[in-house]
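Milestone 3.1: sequence recovery, worked example.
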């Protein structure tokens, strides 16, 4: 208002409240920033539309104004940049019909990298190129929206466990826990399986990645959804499989969980191998009545701390059938163990009567259980490591006296029988026992006191095959004209392993010849002839000497 005075008296007054010419306007603005659907929170999508509703007061109706907006990142206090590195900016011109009202600014941003961030809109109103109002309060909630930070975590199991058997068809259930999504919106969980050792995708028989998905509408911001995978694990023994999951809205991945070392999303597929030997570590055993076998079960990829059971049984390689004991029941062994580490070994012990198993191969089959469920097996009839073979010991002999198969009847005869053996266990002690047989009657030869003529030798086999001598010392003076055959038996711990008893085997046969006797009529003529000739010779020689002497006298 203006008052023109002369000598302190008003001579002119202009006092018109509606006169724009004498009015100065001080505009004011405030803003309300939301997503396009009116929410103050939004998912971290690659394309997000924000609307800033600018409320103004005290503008001049009918004049043109410009409102400019810039988005700020609250945590940093710096402008939000677009893909080209420029501040995200919006502007619009408007002409108010009244001095107060609202005008909207529209921003399009990429929020995929803004998880958990708060975005604040700063606005300025210009009139004729000059700023007439602004609102730039980093703490003003009205002009702030928040980008959600959705998260997911997963728990992968097979039948409720993080361990499973390497079977042809495995069903893995991954329970995905999600947080901070928008209720009422539809989302998808995309899952894939990874091989932990390689870090590469698990492939099916056609070479395609094993994947699964589940689509759901969130009832609340937080919840659960299940993703199920079915795959062939028959060739995955010893491997660990890890489930990777992504939370997807539209075409945008808004959360993921891909931790190759996360045990919660890991399934262990154990592997076992076995090494069957006797207690001495031998892969070949003699056909004894009590053989102690040890199967060292080596395991990989178990979960330490769990209590496992390993069951073993013995199978004949020739038939594939279980080996049974005298009671008709399968020969088995079992042990419980709690591994401190994922890999290790445990021994199972079996006792077998192998006397009737000559030449057979015995194979150990093993199963590992967790809470009654099989998690690993090893059952390969052709695996040499889990096989022992029952020897077929044999002997053959060569009997001689002074290297000959003939000798003259006499006292104190030393007969040596060289016994050749095969298929024994090196390092083991054996006994060879022998006896002399009268071939003519097929009975054991006895001495003058009626005792069997026998001998034995105890030896330790240096190798699987070899020779050993059995020496007989006996009186053969009355055995002239007889044919003797040596029978031999091979023993170990009083169990007969081999026999060689062939009356017609020339190698183990010796012949006893008669000793010439002076009273033998068959030689008397010879003795007489020799005597007569000797006497005649003496007579002729004496006559010769006498005639020589007579000539000398004359």
């Amino acid at each position: 208002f203006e008052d023109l005075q002369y000598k302190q008296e008003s001579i002119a007054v202009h006092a018109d409240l509606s006169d724009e010419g004498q009015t100065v306007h001080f505009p004011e603005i405030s803003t309300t920033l939301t997503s396009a659907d009116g929410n103050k929170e939004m998912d971290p999508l690659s394309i997000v539309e924000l609307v800033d509703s600018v409320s103004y007061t005290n503008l001049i109706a009918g004049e043109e104004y410009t409102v400019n907006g810039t988005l700020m990142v609250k945590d940093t206090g710096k402008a939000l940049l677009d893909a080209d590195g420029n501040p995200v900016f919006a502007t619009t011109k408007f002409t108010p019909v009244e001095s107060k009202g609202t005008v909207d600014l529209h921003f399009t941003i990429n929020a995929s990298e803004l998880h958990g961030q708060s975005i604040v809109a700063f606005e300025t109103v210009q009139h004729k190129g000059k700023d007439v109002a602004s609102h730039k309060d980093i703490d003003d909630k009205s002009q702030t929206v928040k980008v959600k930070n959705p998260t997911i975590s997963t728990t992968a199991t097979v039948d409720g466990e993080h361990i499973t058997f390497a079977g042809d068809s495995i069903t893995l259930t991954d329970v995905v826990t999600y947080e901070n999504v928008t209720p009422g919106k539809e989302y998808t969980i995309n899952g894939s399986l990874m091989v932990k050792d390689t870090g590469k995708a698990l492939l099916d028989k056609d070479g395609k990645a094993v994947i699964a998905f589940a689509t759901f509408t969130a009832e609340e911001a937080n919840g659960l959804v299940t993703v199920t995978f079915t795959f062939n694990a028959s060739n995955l023994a010893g491997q660990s499989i890890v489930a990777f999951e992504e939370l997807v809205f539209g075409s945008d991945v808004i959360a993921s969980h891909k931790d190759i070392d996360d045990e919660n999303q890991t399934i262990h597929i154990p592997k076992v191998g076995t090494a069957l030997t006797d207690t001495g570590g031998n892969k070949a055993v003699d056909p004894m009545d009590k053989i102690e076998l040890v199967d060292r079960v080596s395991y990989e990829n178990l979960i330490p701390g769990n209590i496992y059971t390993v069951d073993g049984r013995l199978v004949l390689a020739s038939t594939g059938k279980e080996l049974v004991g005298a009671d008709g029941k399968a020969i088995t062994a079992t042990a419980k163990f709690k591994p401190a580490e994922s890999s290790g070994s445990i021994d199972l012990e079996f006792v077998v009567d192998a006397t009737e198993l000559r030449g057979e191969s015995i194979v150990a089959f093993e199963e590992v259980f967790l809470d009654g469920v099989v998690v690993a097996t090893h059952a390969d009839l052709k695996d040499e490591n889990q096989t022992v073979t029952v020897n077929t010991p044999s002997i053959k002999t060569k009997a001689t006296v002074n290297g000959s198969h003939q000798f003259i009847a006499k006292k104190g005869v030393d007969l040596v029988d060289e016994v050749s053996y095969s298929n024994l266990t090196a390092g083991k002690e054996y006994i060879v026992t022998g006896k002399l047989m009268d071939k003519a009657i097929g009975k054991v030869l006895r001495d003058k006191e009626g005792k069997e003529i026998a001998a034995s030798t105890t030896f330790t086999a240096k190798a699987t095959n070899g020779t050993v001598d059995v020496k007989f010392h006996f009186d053969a003076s009355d055995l002239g004209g007889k044919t003797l055959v040596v029978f031999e038996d091979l023993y170990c711990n009083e169990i007969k392993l081999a026999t060689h008893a062939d009356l017609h085997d020339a190698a183990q046969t010796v012949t006893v010849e008669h000793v010439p006797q002076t009273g033998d009529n068959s030689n008397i003529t010879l003795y007489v002839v020799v005597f007569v000739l000797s006497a005649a010779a003496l007579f002729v020689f004496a006559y010769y000497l006498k005639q020589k002497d007579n000539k000398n006298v004359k």
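The longest strand covers residues 48-57. Helices lie at 524-553.
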